[in-house]
Amino acid sequence: MTKSQNLKFNAIENTDAIVGIDIAKNVHWAGIILPNGKEIKKSFSFHNNRKGFESLVETVKNVLTMLNFKKAIIGMEPTGHYWKSCARYLKKIEWIKVVTVNPFHVKNAKEFDDNSQTKNDKKDCMTIARLIKDARFFEPYLPEGIWADLRNLSNTRAELVRKQNAVKCRLVAIIDEYFPEYAKVFKNVLSRTSEEILKECPFPEDIKSIGKEELLKHIKKTVKRGYSKKQVETIYELANESIGTMEGTEGAKFQLNMYIEEAKLLEKQIKMTEQELESQLKETGFYESLTSIQGIGIVSAATFVGEVGDINRFDSYEQIRRYAGLNLVENSSGNHKGKTTISKRGRSLLRSILYRMAFTMVSKNKEIKELYKYLTTRKENQLKKKQAIVAIIGKILQIIYAVVTKNEEYKATRVFTQERLEQLKVA
Description:
alpha/beta; Nucleotidyltransferase, domain 5; Helix Hairpins; 3 domains; two-stranded antiparallel sheet; 59% helix
């Protein structure tokens, strides 16, 4: 049993009622047990609205009064978004402690009762309650105020970027079918010059029809600066040699225009979101400290804070590492020592932004660049590239935690010892 689990056991008192809730869109199910696991009330349903929440609280309060108990521990799975309203409502009540359980644990634990993984709301709420009884729960972080705003904004940007990438993929798919040679000239199909060509004459027959001189004239007029005459000439030459499909071109052109407009709208929305992220980040008081770290930009910093919330709520940077699911775990059995990997039991967006930070800082931050080089080239315990990146992330989190909690700007000497700096040859 882990130290953390022992602490959770100690948090459950003999005068606590344990309530498990199976969350659904419209109707939730709840079950109540004693700390010893005895069922004291059969599973009951309540609606996902204020009246339903009030009825749940009243039912639990009546049970506490009957048993002469002091408080209740109420838990649920943090899946989807329907759980949040219920959790936030219950957290406001002084005698209720709100916790969450891992959906993976619920799935596995269900089989212990009746050897079946069949979904059953009445059964699942009791399974959740028993997991809480066994101290297999977590205290959820529900951001408030500016921390909630930043999380919403960072999630919004991530979703917009996913949509933008999907639109670009659709654009490329059409171009690959009708003008497969196009990619030899334009790696970015949404560059200014490429966009004008796709809108004016996207396919080989269109380009041949307009002619090289007229195409150059059009690009010069619309793009004005930054276009390459050689690119335009090459596109014309490739059009005359193209093996692209010639059927359904009008419909494909319509699709192209729709996707180009959608991509432009998404780009605008992303920029607007990033501006708002910067504005909100400044309100946290972390702006100067985070952006002083070479290699961490405004968007990365804001997304990081949006995922983590108030950094001061963590006792160490290692806690943030576990929160991201970047803590190391070893898969071993008997005499066999398995590979050490990251747990990935944490917030995926936070992991993603930390990986991006690491790659950027390896390129742009002098100390981190040399540390990465050292980790991948040292004679003893030499790390592979992926292993080194994970180690670098740990160092980045250490740096972030240090500068933010101390409210100071980044200086290499504050996060690296002189011995380490000399070792890295950056002193």
